């Protein structure tokens, strides 16, 4: 395997450990294994230059291997400065011949330099987790637009950015919202985030969750998963929301719902999953319970107003690897995890491989969909084609050895008719 000439990783010597972890994750990703076997023969991405701005994890490595097997010429950079697993980045370069520009803990300047390096690859397809590649192309690299076939987007935050661009008429090539696939948000967002966010909180603090008051900010699919898992750990779960339907759902699911300013005074843990800015703000810090643990499970580190917390604090120390403890003038302590970045990757290992198997299978199939279209899609945010979503679900069920019923011809006719009734 030829080692790429250009890359930027922390330590090539970590590659052996990274390779072993990548292979471990591969055992839990049967749908991607099936796609690799199928498309390594057909090579639908042959000659396609693809740049991915994704969390550099074992699961992402297996997506990249699948895309390369399908013929793609792929380069990767990180979609978050604290989510890179340096051993995985080394293995991708040293053992799989995939150029990577990602170092855990990289500065903001280096982070964007890596994005530019991925765009120097002259991609015709982008694969984003947060829309940073698409945003950078539109702001700084318009020369790339003409040859773009399109992009894919992995996460809610990125889809929000892209839809804002499309609404303003600024989006200059099509993007498929992989995040909105049923096999993505029903499973990855709920079960993946639910497990990995709690994993990050527990690894960072080693504080018992049972019996504590645990507030979840936002009750979308990610918030639902976090609340469900916190309840399973024995926490008294509070949900805060701005949308009445979601708030009502949380009540019906058995959770207490109240304004965050009230919850802040009661909470031992507060985890954000809103996708919005400064949802935890100065007014909340001012009433927060002593020792409250703050964590963010959204993509960007803007959900908690960290500058406001810094301004309020009289002192700051780091008692544990992923914990910054801010002491306020009145002696109260507020404990921020992972510098406010997504706690499941910055303080743990991210989502379990089994759910990323579905998400990344959607990514791979959507990239092939963009590459094989005879006519370019409109310049807007597109949903994942239903047939792709259904294929991923079918393959996952088969891998789990689960069989389901099929409609009879009579039932199919009935569902498409209107004449027959009571």
From TrEMBL:
<dbReference type="InterPro" id="IPR020082">
    <property type="entry name" value="S-Ado-L-homoCys_hydrolase_CS"/>
</dbReference>
<feature type="binding site">
    <location>
        <begin position="155"/>
        <end position="157"/>
    </location>
    <ligand>
        <name>NAD(+)</name>
    </ligand>
</feature>
<dbReference type="InterPro" id="IPR015878">
    <property type="entry name" value="Ado_hCys_hydrolase_NAD-bd"/>
</dbReference>
<dbReference type="GO" id="GO:0071269">
    <property type="term" value="P:L-homocysteine biosynthetic process"/>
</dbReference>
<feature type="domain" description="S-adenosyl-L-homocysteine hydrolase NAD binding">
    <location>
        <begin position="189"/>
        <end position="350"/>
    </location>
</feature>
<feature type="binding site">
    <location>
        <begin position="218"/>
        <end position="223"/>
    </location>
    <ligand>
        <name>NAD(+)</name>
    </ligand>
</feature>
<feature type="binding site">
    <location>
        <position position="351"/>
    </location>
    <ligand>
        <name>NAD(+)</name>
    </ligand>
</feature>
<feature type="binding site">
    <location>
        <position position="154"/>
    </location>
    <ligand>
        <name>substrate</name>
    </ligand>
</feature>
<dbReference type="GO" id="GO:0006730">
    <property type="term" value="P:one-carbon metabolic process"/>
</dbReference>
<feature type="binding site">
    <location>
        <position position="184"/>
    </location>
    <ligand>
        <name>substrate</name>
    </ligand>
</feature>
<feature type="binding site">
    <location>
        <position position="129"/>
    </location>
    <ligand>
        <name>substrate</name>
    </ligand>
</feature>
<feature type="binding site">
    <location>
        <position position="57"/>
    </location>
    <ligand>
        <name>substrate</name>
    </ligand>
</feature>
<feature type="binding site">
    <location>
        <position position="344"/>
    </location>
    <ligand>
        <name>NAD(+)</name>
    </ligand>
</feature>
<dbReference type="InterPro" id="IPR042172">
    <property type="entry name" value="Adenosylhomocyst_ase-like_sf"/>
</dbReference>
<dbReference type="GO" id="GO:0033353">
    <property type="term" value="P:S-adenosylmethionine cycle"/>
</dbReference>
<feature type="binding site">
    <location>
        <position position="241"/>
    </location>
    <ligand>
        <name>NAD(+)</name>
    </ligand>
</feature>
<dbReference type="GO" id="GO:0004013">
    <property type="term" value="F:adenosylhomocysteinase activity"/>
</dbReference>
<keyword id="KW-0520">NAD</keyword>
<dbReference type="InterPro" id="IPR000043">
    <property type="entry name" value="Adenosylhomocysteinase-like"/>
</dbReference>
<feature type="binding site">
    <location>
        <begin position="220"/>
        <end position="225"/>
    </location>
    <ligand>
        <name>NAD(+)</name>
    </ligand>
</feature>
<feature type="binding site">
    <location>
        <position position="189"/>
    </location>
    <ligand>
        <name>NAD(+)</name>
    </ligand>
</feature>
<comment type="pathway">
    <text>Amino-acid biosynthesis; L-homocysteine biosynthesis; L-homocysteine from S-adenosyl-L-homocysteine: step 1/1.</text>
</comment>
<keyword id="KW-0378">Hydrolase</keyword>
<feature type="binding site">
    <location>
        <position position="188"/>
    </location>
    <ligand>
        <name>substrate</name>
    </ligand>
</feature>
<keyword id="KW-0963">Cytoplasm</keyword>
<protein>
    <recommendedName>
        <fullName>Adenosylhomocysteinase</fullName>
        <ecNumber>3.13.2.1</ecNumber>
    </recommendedName>
</protein>
<keyword id="KW-0554">One-carbon metabolism</keyword>
<dbReference type="Pfam" id="PF05221">
    <property type="entry name" value="AdoHcyase"/>
</dbReference>
<feature type="binding site">
    <location>
        <begin position="297"/>
        <end position="299"/>
    </location>
    <ligand>
        <name>NAD(+)</name>
    </ligand>
</feature>
<comment type="similarity">
    <text>Belongs to the adenosylhomocysteinase family.</text>
</comment>
<dbReference type="Pfam" id="PF00670">
    <property type="entry name" value="AdoHcyase_NAD"/>
</dbReference>
<comment type="function">
    <text>May play a key role in the regulation of the intracellular concentration of adenosylhomocysteine.</text>
</comment>
<dbReference type="InterPro" id="IPR036291">
    <property type="entry name" value="NAD(P)-bd_dom_sf"/>
</dbReference>
<dbReference type="GO" id="GO:0005829">
    <property type="term" value="C:cytosol"/>
</dbReference>
């Amino acid at each position: 395997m030829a080692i790429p000439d250009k890359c930027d990783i922390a330590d090539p010597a970590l590659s052996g450990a990274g390779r072993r972890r990548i292979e471990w994750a591969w055992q839990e990703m049967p749908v991607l294994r099936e796609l690799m076997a199928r498309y390594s023969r057909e090579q639908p991405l042959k000659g396609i230059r693809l740049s991915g701005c994704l969390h550099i994890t074992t699961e992402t490595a297996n997506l990249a291997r699948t895309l390369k097997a399908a013929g793609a010429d792929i380069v990767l950079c990180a979609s978050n400065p604290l989510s890179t697993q340096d051993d995985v980045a080394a293995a991708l370069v040293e053992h799989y011949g995939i150029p990577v520009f990602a170092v855990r803990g990289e500065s903001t300047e280096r982070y964007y330099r890596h994005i530019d390096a991925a765009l120097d690859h002259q991609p015709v397809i982008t694969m984003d987790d947060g829309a940073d590649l698409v945003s950078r192309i539109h702001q700084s690299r318009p020369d790339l637009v003409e040859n773009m076939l399109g992009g894919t987007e992995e996460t809610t935050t990125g889809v929000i950015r892209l839809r804002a661009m499309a609404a303003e008429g600024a989006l200059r090539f099509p993007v498929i919202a992989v995040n909105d696939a049923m096999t993505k948000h029903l499973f990855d967002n709920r079960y993946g985030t639910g497990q990995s966010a709690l994993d990050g909180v527990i690894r960072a603090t080693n504080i018992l969750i049972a019996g504590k008051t645990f507030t979840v900010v936002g009750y979308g699919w990610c918030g639902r998963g976090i609340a469900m898992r916190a309840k399973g750990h024995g926490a008294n779960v509070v949900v805060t929301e701005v949308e009445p339907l979601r708030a009502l759902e949380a009540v019906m699911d058995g959770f207490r719902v109240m304004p965050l300013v009230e919850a802040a005074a009661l909470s031992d843990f507060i985890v954000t999953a809103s996708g919005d800015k400064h949802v935890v703000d100065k007014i909340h810090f001012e009433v927060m319970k002593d020792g409250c643990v703050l964590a963010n499970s959204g993509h960007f580190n803007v959900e908690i107003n960290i500058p406001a917390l810094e301004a309020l604090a009289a002192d700051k120390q780091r008692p544990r690897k992923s914990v910054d403890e801010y002491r306020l003038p009145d002696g109260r302590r507020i404990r921020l995890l992972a510098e406010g970045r997504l706690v499941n990757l910055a303080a743990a290992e991210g989502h379990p491989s089994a759910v990323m198997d579905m998400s990344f299978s959607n990514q791979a199939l959507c990239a092939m969909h963009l590459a094989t279209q005879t006519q370019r899609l409109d310049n807007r945010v597109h949903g994942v084609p239903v047939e792709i979503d259904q294929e991923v679900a079918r393959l996952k069920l088969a891998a789990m050895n689960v069989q389901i019923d099929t409609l009879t011809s009579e039932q199919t006719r009935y569902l498409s008719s209107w004449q027959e009734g009571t």
